[in-house]
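[agent] plan:
  1. take the single chain provided in the ticket
  2. run structure prediction with default settings
  3. attach structure tokens to the ticket
  4. add a short note for the reviewer (M.T.)
[agent] executing step 1
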Amino acid sequence: MVPFRKTGQLFQAISRGKPGKLVEKALTVLKNYQPNPEEELAHTSLLAAAYALTSMYSSELSDALTCVRFYDKLMAEKYPLKKEDWLKLAGVYRLIYEKTRCMESLEKAVHAGNLSGDPLIISETLIELYMRVRDDDTFQLCLEKMSRFLQLNPQDTDLLLLRANLYEEYGKRSKQPKFLQLAFEEYEKIVCIDPKNQKAKAQSIVALAFHALYTENADRISEAVYKGQLLSEHLPIELYAKGITLLTYAIYSSDLDEIQNAIYYFQRATSLDRTFALGWHYLGLSFFLMYEALELDRYLLLSVKFFQKSVAHNPNADTFIQLAIATSRQFEEDEAIEHLEHAKVLFETAFSLEKSAPFPPAEWIFEYAILLDTLAEAKEDETIFVQALDQFNRVLILDPSIPDIHHRIGLTIAHLAVITNDANHFMRAFCHFRLAHRSNPDHDFILLDWALTLIHYGDSLEDDSRVEGIMQEAEEKLLRSARQGNNQAYYQIACFYSLKNQKTLALEWMKKAKTIGALPPVKELLEDTWLENLRETVEFHQFMTLWNEHGFES
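[agent] step 2 finished; step 3 output follows
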């Protein structure tokens, strides 16, 4: 049996070098050693430290939990822990948090980090805490601590990098460009201290690009693109930065070619490092933007695939939200309700990851409410409509300036009104459409949805005199929507005139819709109940025959 004194010496020697195999050897020796009562706590201390180092190499949750168990025993016996012990314990708790997402572990990591007295560890754990709770108090605490440390050592590039990361994260999340500008300046300060720091160079360009996009500053976007071109292409972060500059330029200028160029750099970044979650995330976002512009199914499938790769390597809430939105769009392609159900789970996963935050961003809740509305309509489920309205009301409380909020609320209430035939729901929907139109009179879809809701309301009434007035109002709004450039209104006007049994006008608008490529699939034309009167005519069958065989221009 190896004497305990020699075991301790062996461990102390190898812990300085931290080679993995030697740590395993020390751990094996320590586990086999039988200490006497006087040696027991010292032996436990060495075991705790050995398991701490082992967990850092193995990333195994079991090793980390064993380490904590030994440290808990030491603390229960009031054994004096050194700063190095608290440093190791902070790392172990962070590993446990990464594996379990348990908030208690993160809080213990912050506590251990503070007791270690190490500025870098304290800053890292506090930033991790902010990333979880996302509240202004924690942000201010992080900032105050790091600023105090930097007053003592203003040339510490590791701390400067952390503070820049904090500014950048807060700026992007809160959409406050001044923090992105602060991040840019901090990254530039690092480059001045260490001109060879390629990571800081790349991140300064990313911060500049996002700041320019949020402020819609074309000159600064061009500056970011130019600086990106000067980067080498040896590191994933450099390729990512090049991609971001091109993507922000593409978004600003609506240039699809530049999105393709951005995709090229994101792909190269992920080929260098298959675990580079940011690269996968922005690949997913780039392909989603391509899908939104071109409506090609393959782009949507690629978007979902790359978002899935990103969350596999870094399960953060932002990527889960993007994955949920992309997944919900798949419903538009094949009408499979499973996509909506899965998207709902993804949204709720994102919210659970940030359940410690006071409120998720209003934009996330807005997208979640839209998903619930779509799911409720697909299932014709009144309870899900109510859930959607609850979420929209949360958005109104958190941020009433969210674009289109009253339109979307009106539309959801209208969907609920159609399945319940409740006049009160129709009245509420009209109120929200009115508010939406007042704030954005050029929004042609508000007029279209308002008109369609009026038609449904008229269909639910038995008083013919009231119905006539409602139909006249619906007709006026449909025609205004078409005049404002809404292509979908053409087909809906044809349906309206078919309902009114004005077959000539209905066919005329069908032809107009066909000319501008605004007709739905043939299956819908043959099943739409509003077209029943028109489908009875010979002219309609001639129209369909001509379309199926040859197509036409007028």
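[agent] step 4 note for reviewer: The CA atoms of residues 171 and 179 lie 5 Å apart.
[agent] ticket updated
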